[in-house]
Description:
Number of helices: 12
Oligomer: single chain
Distance between the termini: 19 Å
Bound molecules: NADP nicotinamide-adenine-dinucleotide phosphate
Radius of gyration: 21 Å
Strand content: 5-15%
Shape: globular
Mean pLDDT: 97
Number of strands: 12
Strand order of the largest sheet: 8-7-6-9-10-11-12
Amino acid sequence: MKAVITRKMPDSIVALLAECCDVYMWPDEHEPISRHMLMEQMADADALFTNVTDRIDREVLDAAPRLKVISTMAVGFNNIDVAEATRRGIPVGHTPEVLTEAVADLTFALLLATARRVVEAMAFIREDKWKAWGPMLLTGQTVHGATLGIIGMGRIGEGVARRARGLGMNILYCNRSRKEAAERALEAAYCHLDELLKRSDYVVMLAPSTKETTRMIGAREFSLMKPNAIFINTARGTNVDEAAMIEALKAGQLRGAGLDVFETEPIRPDHPLCALDNVVLLPHIGSATVETRLKMAEIAALNIIAGLKNEPLPYIVNPEVNV
Ligand code: NAP
């Protein structure tokens, strides 16, 4: 049997897979596999080890007549046509839980960096603009005691709420369904999206990318936010109307934004967001700690091994096809 890995992985992960199958691995760590090479490799592939940069659509599945399992090294799986995989009886694995705390940490890093203008302040020193201490120099916004609105109170959202409690923040959240245990444990209040937007000083997007969440935050939603509001997105760029966000940032309708994800990735230095001072932009590194990425890669490999052995996947997206 053969597994295709679409990005260079550490030796330990390749060795784990090599115990049960042949492995083709795209040799570049930074550049994604070309579409052409992916299609070519899928012709005799039994397993696919993928990541957020590969579009696994019907065309790829058509090119893979032997495919028994798909495994993505991520919790989000919006890049995979899961409905089509399910129709073909192919289980799709992902890597939830192991990345929760790392992404919650990074979400808070973005919130603090944006609120306290950390990146701008560092540039101020580098550009030799620091002449003396100033009473209102680079003044930002208070985080302690402020109101935090979490859109998508799932695993990572709860992790962010746990951190917010330590900073004495008032926590609001919205989901499609209420989570009463989390409300009690985290002293979080459930509210409608519009109310959350009107009342929050910090709005954090942590809902998955779905049809329903596509551009769920746009011009109307930004206009409902407080004038001092800071928007943080560590979920997926497609959840936000980026052009509307840029307009709101330029107009001062939104105080700042901390973003780890974008409508189209990667963004380049000539992207309009890069011209703004009131943003902190990161290259999709939410889960990027060494320990977390190694655990994610290991779980992705274990999902593949289970799929090749016709055993239940440890973490499956479409349990209806699990055996
Ligand atoms: P999760 O546990 O499934 O949580 C997602 C939450 O979103 C759920 O509580 C869900 O609750 C809520 N939700 C779903 N649809 C919604 C809607 N239309 N409106 C409001 N809330 C909605 O997932 P997670 O592990 O916390 O991960 C969340 C997302 O973070 C992932 O899907 C991924 O896209 C992103 N992520 C990004 C990075 C990064 O590197 N930046 C890393 C990991 C994850 P209901 O079902 O009740 O609505």
